[in-house]
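Researcher: Batch entry, complex prediction.
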Amino acid sequence: MSTTTITDTEVPAVTSRGTTRPLAVAYAGLDLKRQLRDKVGMFFTVALPAFLFFVFGMGDDEAYGSANVAMYVMVSMAAYGAVTATTTVAGVAATEQTMGWGRQVSLTPLPSLAFVAIKTAVAMLVAAVPIALIYAIGAATGSSGNAFDWLASAGIVWLGSVLFAVYGLAMCLIFKGENAAGIASGLIVIMSFLGNVFTPMDGIILEIGRFTPLYGYAGLARYPISEGYLPNDAGHDSVWLLLANVCSWTVIFAALAVWGLRRRRERV
Amino acid sequence: MTTPAIKAIGLTKRFRGQGGEIVTAVDGIDLTIGSGEIVAFLGPNGAGKTTTVDMFLGLTSPTSGEVEVYGETPHSAVVDGRVSAVMQTGGLLPDFTVRETIRAIAALHGRPERVDVVVERAGLGPLANRLVKACSGGEQQRLKFALALVPDPDLVILDEPTTGMDVSARQQFWDTMRADAADGRTIVFATHYLAEADAFAERTVLMARARIMADGPTAEVRAAYGGHTVTFRPPADVMGAQGIDQAWLDEVRKAVAPLGINDLEVASASLEAAFLALTGTPLIDSEATGAPTDAEESLL
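Model: C-alpha cells for the complex:
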C-alpha cells in the first residue's frame, strides 16, 4: 500500500515545472468564469455603461473633433465600464487574499508573481467585455470616426484601465471586509461625474474635476477625437496636463496600496 | 524511508505584539516526526500550534532554528507536492462551486486528474455542484480537506480540522483520515480536543505556552498528565434542578477520604455525550481508549 503513495508523488515533481503555463491558464479560465457569473458586478460593468450610453448620446451625429458626439460618449462610457471592471476584479482579489484564499494558493507550486499575473490577465479580460460591447453598440448605432479614432481610443481605454486595478487593490487593502470592493466601485461613479466622463461640466466643478483620477484617463482616451477640446467650448486640456494627472494618480494609488499591504501584514 | 517527514531543531518564532512588546509564539521546539506516523499536536488555544504549523509549511519563516520537511525546505516540499495542509486560516471563495474550487487548486498543482479521486475521497460527490457559500461550516471543512489531498502528499498537516463539524461529521472525518493513514500517509494534526488526540493519534505532542510540555505515545502522555478519571452516576433522588444535593456530596467526600481521595470534582455530562446518547451515534472508539468524555478538557 505504502509503495503506491510514494510512486504517486514522484509524478508532480516531474510535471509541475514544465507545464506551469497551461495550468495557470486553466486557473485563469475558472476565475474568469466566476467573475463573469457575478450578476451584480456585471450589471455595473456592462449593463449600466451601455444604458448610460443610450441615455447620453447614442446615435447623436453632431460633429465633434474628428468624429461625432455619439463616438465621444461611446468612448466615455466604455472607459467607465472598463474602470469599473478592473476596480472590481482587483478589489475582489485583495479581499480574497484577506479571506485566506491566498494561503490556499500558497500551498501550491504557483509562484506568487505568477498569481499576480493571472489576476491582472483576468482583470484585463473582464475590462475588455464592456469595451467590446459598447464599441459594438456604437458601431451599430451611428458612432462615427476614422479608423485611428476607433483603434487608439479603444487601446487607451483598455490599457489605461490598469490604473484602476491599482486603485481597487489599494482601496480593498485599506478598508477591510467584503464590502470594500463595492465601496471602491461605488466611488468610481462619483469620480466619473467629477472626471467629466458622464455629462460635460464647466466652471468651478470642471476646475476641481481636473484633479480627480478619472479626468486624465478619460481625457486621454478621447484625445484622438477631441485633441483636448472640451464639449460646449468649456476649454482645452493639453496632453501633458492629462498625462500628469494619470501619472500622479498612479503614484498615489501605488503608494496607498503599498501602505495598505504593510499595515495589513503588521496586523497578522 | 530514513528521511523523517519533519525535523525541527530549536524552532523559534517571535513577533511584535500590538502594544509593541515582543511575543514569543514558539520557543525553541525540537521535534522529529518519522514517515508514516500519526501525531497529535495538543494544546489550548494560543499555545503556538498554528504558528508551528505555519513554519512546517513555509508560510512563516522562523526567527531562529531550522525546519526540514523530507530533508528539504518546507517551501520546496510544498512545491514538490510532498506536504499539504488543512489550515485554520485558509479560506475558500464563496462564489466557486465545490468542484470548481477543487479544479482550480488541482490546476495550480498540475494534477487535473486528481479532481475526481479527491471528490470521492472527501465524500463531496453529492455537493460537487453546490456553491461554496451554500455549504455548511463542516462541509467547507471537508472541501478544505479535499484540497489538501489534491497533490497526493506524503504528509498532511491538519490545523483544527474538525472545526465547525457536528459530532457525526467529525466522526466521519476521522474515519476518512484513518483510511488515509492506512495507506501510509503521515498525519500531523493540531487540536484542542483531547478526545481527538486520544482516539486517533499514536503519539501526542503536548504544547503549552510556546513550548513542548510532553511528547510520547498518546496513552503515556495521557497517563502522565491527565491522570485517570473515575466516573459514577449518583442516585436519582439526590439530583435536583440545582444539581447534586450538597449534604449527600459531603457524605461521599467523607466516605472516600479514608481511601486517599481528597479531590472530588463534579461535572455534568458534556453536551457531546448527551448528543450522542440522544442520537444513538456511537462514541469515537470509546471502548478502545476507555477515555471518559466528561470534563476531558479540564486538564488543559
